[in-house]
Amino acid sequence: MLVDCQTCPVRDVRCGECMVTALLEPVSAELPLDSAELAAVSTFVDVGLVSAAEASGLSARREPWDRFRAVG
Predict the structure, then answer these.
(1) Which one of 10, 11, 31, 41 has the largest count of C-beta atoms within 10 Å of its C-beta?
(2) Is residue 17 a contact partner of residue 8, using CB atoms and an 8 Å limit?
(3) CA dihedral (13, 14, 15, 16) positive or negative
(4) Which candidate, 63, 53, 2, 69, places its Cα nearest to that of 28?
(5) Closest CA to 55 of 65, 47, 64, 44
(6) DSSP assignment, residue 16?
(7) What pLDDT, in 10s, does the model give residues 37-50?
(8) Structural domain that includes position 49
(9) How far is Cα 21 from Cα 55, in angstroms, rounded to an integer?
(10) 20 alpha-carbon distance from chain centroid
(11) Predicted local confidence at residue 35, as pLDDT
(12) What is the mean pLDDT of residues 13-35?
């Protein structure tokens, strides 16, 4: 199979959702927080569970898939 980004009909529009992009990007354990995670952290800061300084350095962490198994 040959994947050619030059002929992709959604090039530069949907690259972030492309499996080829996901496979080619370097794997890092540190990920930015998504909108739901940011909202949760903001709530924690608002009610005083964590300080704004602590919250500013947070990131998500990629977990290895070999710890999970399919069911069903």
Answers:
(1) 41
(2) no
(3) positive
(4) 63
(5) 44
(6) G
(7) 999 999 999 999 99
(8) 5-67
(9) 29
(10) 16
(11) 93
(12) 75
Q: Please name the amino acid found at residue 64.
A: P
Higher pLDDT, 8 or 16: 8
Which positions ≥6 away from 1 have C-beta within 8 Å? none
Distance CA 55, CA 59 (A): 9
Instruction: Please give the DSSP secondary-structure letter assigned to residue 22.
Output: H
The first and second tokens of residue 40, run together, are 């949760």
In a domain, 72, yes or no: no
Write a three-state SS string for 31-57: ECCCHHHHHHHHHHHHCCCCCHHHHHC
CA pair distance 28, 61, nearest whole angstrom: 8
For residue 18, is it within any domain? yes
Q: Could you give the number of structural domains in the chain?
A: 1
Higher pLDDT: 42 or 62? It is 42
